[in-house]
């Protein structure tokens, strides 16, 4: 869980970036970020064909309670531009929280997603969630591999054969 309103992080690649929880005023910058996420990655993130993320969806993604729902935003320290979003949404009983990450196409491969997913895992543990899940398209090999490297276990999705359910136990 972020100790400060904004925290500097260093990815395994050596790339340094800033992270902070989303605020309602971040909607325009988040909309701008989604305009720089590759079309395929937008499809993976929203599990449907999306050319532009609707304003109402963007507003929902920044309007979070910072308890059961969190959205961590990453910024490039040189330009101040938003480069990533990492969302966690948990159930009321704190049994399961689901995660989803989107990265600006120019910042992929720098380790930002790894760091954000690690931070969301800490957040979920600190807030008492028992399990973390990610639902991925079977075609999203990068995300599936990243999540497996982080200890997530892949299962077929019970409702859709085109999806993979990745889970990690947070109780130990």
Radius of gyration: 15 Å
Report the principal-axis shape: globular
Structural class: alpha+beta
- Which stretches are low in confidence, meaning pLDDT under 50 for 5 or more residues running? none
How would you spell out the order of helices and strands? EEHHHEEEHEHEE
The strand count comes to 8
Q: For the report, how would you describe the main beta sheet? A: 8 strands, mixed
> Residue-averaged pLDDT, rounded?
94
Total helical segments: 5
Strand order of the largest sheet: 1-2-3-4-5-6-8-7
Helix content: 25-40%
Strand content: 25-35%
Query: How far do the termini sit from each other?
Result: 17 Å
Summary, kept brief:
By secondary structure, the chain is α+β, with helices and mostly antiparallel strands. The chain has helices at 27-34, 39-46, 55-62, 112-126, 141-149; strands at residues 7-10, 16-21, 69-75, 82-90, 96-103, 131-137, 153-156, 163-169.
Question: Can you tag this structure with a few keywords?
Answer:
alpha+beta; 8 strands; eight-stranded mixed β-sheet; 172 residues
Would you spell out the secondary-structure blueprint of this structure?
Layout: E1 7-10, E2 16-21, H1 27-34, H2 39-46, H3 55-62, E3 69-75, E4 82-90, E5 96-103, H4 112-126, E6 131-137, H5 141-149, E7 153-156, E8 163-169
Parallel strand pairs: 5-6
Antiparallel strand pairs: 1-2, 2-3, 3-4, 4-5, 6-8, 7-8
Helix pairs in contact: 1-3
